[in-house]
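Exercise: predict the fold of this chain.
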Amino acid sequence: MHIFRLLSRNISCALLAAAACAAPSAGAATISVASSASQVALGQSFRVDFRIAGLSAAQYDSLGGFDLDVLFDTSVLEFAGFSFLDAAASSNQLDLPEPGSFGFFGDASAAGGTIDAYGVSGNSSAVLDGGQAGAFRFLSLDFKALAAHAGTAIQIDLADPNLLFLDSGAGLLDTNYSTARVQVAIGQTAPVPEPETLALLGLGALGLAAARRRKAGGALLAAAILAAGPATAQTSAPAPKAAPAAQASAGTPVSGEVVEVRGKRVLLRLASGESRWVSSTQELSPADVGKKLSARLAPRGDAVVMSDITFTN
């Protein structure tokens, strides 16, 4: 499990010992799994949401991190993507606004029929306890249907000995499950529309044709997509608040200076003067602070990952 390797690198033994003695959560939280569709056609995509409910504003009664394995059948499904955003709040509830955060770190990767998904919040316990919603989606996984099946299952591996939900104090969060699996039927073709639906589609096509005739020769409008960087959080040793930076496209080359290093989280001051926290594929050390480097930035889930690092001084 990735989170255990991450914790062993970035958290001292003393902190882990203190976490084990942290006060227990106020009550059991409930984990549930739901699919955006119960039936899809070949080639269609769908989403599976993982939610938590039953949290409160009591001390340590919020989600601070998770690590779980999700099982699926690779002969009928393809893992197509993931997100940590809660649709209701349009935000990551493990990455709440708080000055000085070292940010959220998470990933989801498939090996065979197992997806290893994890996330760790950089927020303080006070911010998580006071600002996190009582119920929210903490993970969603996207799949594409590859072959017909009467009902293929996507499920949390409850037999995984390393299945983990952490509270805001880095202790174990008390959880139970209302649902831990979903089943999705995959048909050969999309459902045939009813006659009334066909009539509506026909009227819609006529309306679209009329609209195109009215707008013949008109200019096309391009939609702008705005993306904000991950929110930041308060720690015992506050870091400088990162200024917003332009969204990194896949493999975007950048140059800058290392301002701060916290495990695999790096505060990078770009050549443009902007600063932001990024996740590094290469573990840096405090000795690298002040060094200039060139690298590539690419979006990964809700984080921005820095790779191909070359120091220039």
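Check your answer against the key: The radius of gyration is 23 Å.
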